[in-house]
Amino acid sequence: MKYQELLILLPCHSLEDFPTYHEGDDAQSLLASWSALWHPALIASAGQAPAWRRIDDPINDVRERLIVVPSICLQRLPTGFAQRVKDEGGVLIRKTGSREEILQAALEPLGMSPHGNATEGGNAIEGVPYSADFLALGYCYLMIELLTRQMRYSSNLDETYFKGAVVAAAQAAVAGNAALAREKLAACFSVLAEERDHYYPVDAFVLDLNLAAATTLGPSLREELARPTPTNLLIKADLVAEMAAKEPATLAALKEARAAGRVGLIGGEASEERLPLLSHESILAELQRGLAQYESLLGSRPAIYGRWRYGPTPHLPGVLHKLGFKGALHAGFEEGKVPDGLQFKVRWEGLDGSALDAIARTPLDASKPQTFLGLATKLGESMDADHVATLCLAHWPGQASSWLDDLRRISRYCAALGKWVTLDEYFAKTDQPGQLDRFEADRYRSPYLKQAIIRRQDDPISTPVRYWRDQAAGGGARATSALAAFVSGKVLEEASGGREPTESAAASLAAALTAANPSGPKGTLILNPASFIRRAGMEELALEGLPTIDRPVYAAEQAAGGLRAVVDVPAFGFVHIAAGQPAAKEKKPIVLAADNTLRNEFFEAIINPTTGSLASIHEYQTRGNRLSQQLALRSPGAKQKPGDTYRDPDEAADYSVMAADSVKTSIATTTLGEIVTRGRLLDPNGNRLAGFTQRYRLWRGSRVLHVEVELDPAEEPKADPWNSYYCIRLAWADEMAELFRTVNETRQAVTEKRFESPLYIDLVGEKQNTTILTGGLTFHQRQGHSRLDTPLIVRGERERKFSFGIGVDLAHPLHEALGLLAPPMLVPSVPQPASGSSGWLLHLSARNVIATSLAPIGEGDRVAGFRARLLETAGRPASLVVSAFREIRSAMTVDFLGQKVADCGIDGGKLKLDLAAHEWAEVVAHW
Hints:
Oligomer: single chain
CATH architecture of the largest domain: Alpha-Beta Barrel
Number of domains: 5
């Protein structure tokens, strides 16, 4: 049999309304039906290129016609048409979804079958050279025609020449003349490229992105790495290590492809941690660990940052820039909201003003046929809107749609549908965007809490709490060891002698401070490893008598369990307290707890005797309640029935009530007040849901009410962690108050309903601010304008004890928030340092700047200076002066690779440094 014509029936009147909106099997069938007709054997048989007709106007003469009907048209096929085609000697192909099935049915009347290698490296089907390239040509022709219309141009293609060349190429291929077939094919692709150049004469780009996982490190990834077309691999460093251990052949293939410039490497961290919930130091450490692994295993590191798991933060550009990254993939591949940029390629500006080129659109899913059906639409939109027209196609190795292979074939002939490049080449050779894109913290939304429940992870709430406590303790220990080295002048060995790191570091600093005065009066040494002054209340101090009540000792008293004191400890400093002159008795001493009320110099907190909750906080100079707090179990309301009016889940939710069994004043002195409430959480019917204990503590001289909570739940929350949980409920009177939270230790505005803040939430009114010090409790949900839920127990949470604080008019909330996580270090029974009872070793003049790390610089075994990383936390520039107990001779800022950035000014032995808002800078200073 010989075909007279090749036809596809379509549900459109012209290519202007070609149905590009279909998905799944319908999209697959439409593309397969169109492109299968471009097989060279079929074209050579018909002596003409394929054509299309409307489904509602099929051809009358069907004899020796090959007619393909995609699945979307089956219902519109005229009744009896199939039988007529069969009776009159035509071939009708329908109810088939794959190109292979269509080719099988179409070639069979010609005595051929579509067996053969149709991968990128092979072209021959049934001995016909370049068969797969013809199919790709058919797809390219369709996309160019659709792209022309998407760009609002009329076609300028010489159809007569083009289709004549197609027939000539097909005839040469069937005759076995591979050279002529390729020459004619190249001419066809060239014509299509010229057609596109008519309305878009500059390069458009295609980025092929392979996503790596532990299950894809074998043959499927090696096949991707062996392709001649450029590709990119997104892989974290720990997976490279797993590849080296389990799939050394893949590692070798990756090295070879990298050396040949065919594969761009995208990565960053060793493991993909939850970056928005971490400190700056943790983010940097994880990135440095990852880069070291890449260098060790591959001999090179990625210049483009990216990750598969959700995790970008607005602070990343500053960190990545200082680590030498040249670009970033600012996109999400799993749940969670990552904001899109104004263009595909943007200049991503961090909160500190640092900028990095980035891809700021979610890549297209290359495993779905609808991606390739709508490719012309997406490319046209990029040509219209982006200064660099780009398509990014993401897939797992070996799991891409067959149409991606067609695109690869097209790219070997022309760049009509985009030039394939690695990301390294893309960022190096394309123009920079003309404007900066800054993504504020509230434009990101993480999936972490929901994911933890779905994955049945233990302790979704207390895991971040433990992390921040460990961070505070570990950072304090390292800073204390550095201070000990400064005082002794020698680089100390990292040996704890069986003690905890914090205890060992405190002992080292105490020994260094007291070495010059071994016979001085003994007392307790209080150490502050933080870069800000701390007013700390301490109990059970081992002293023989009360210390003198004078700076830095704010208050002290003898108690049943030992001595209590409130002490102001200098930043990076110490206070030595010992028994001294007894303080004069106060004329009217204030007892800090009485009549269900805690009070000190600054405010009073009233406990509700009926519920055991915090009824109100009052500040003496103004009227009105600042804040109320209670515990509750939130449960989803009754399910809505079909047809019911929609109700917000918050409005439908049920909350338990508190019922106090006892309210007891456990400590009532002039230094410390404590009230403990015990009771039950009840449902509306009076059934017990949980038992609770709340301990409220207030120190003299403190602006923070400390609250400890213990719950004994009788009912487990349901699986939805944002709609069913035991929580702290907070309410405030000022509905106009602005909310601020912490992201990576910095202050950020809150506008979203659900947000994360592991350190504090600041409620800022016109003349006052009230701060919730979260103590590592990370997840929060607003209810209206003046209420807030902080979940304590969700499904899978095993911790039952929690603590937080409420601050009144805190000038620097971050200081109190960090102080809540780790108390000052105490070293008992040591002599007073020769320098006096109080002192500091390093001082930062700006309160909105903290030191996130401190380390000595050694020259041999001698300490020659220090290295510190300084973070502006409040969102305003700082002119900083850094003073040390020794004069600073020289200083400079360096990036995180150790390269010099700029010299710092030195004035009178002090270091001067200007920091931008949210800037994180590393300083190297020498004595």
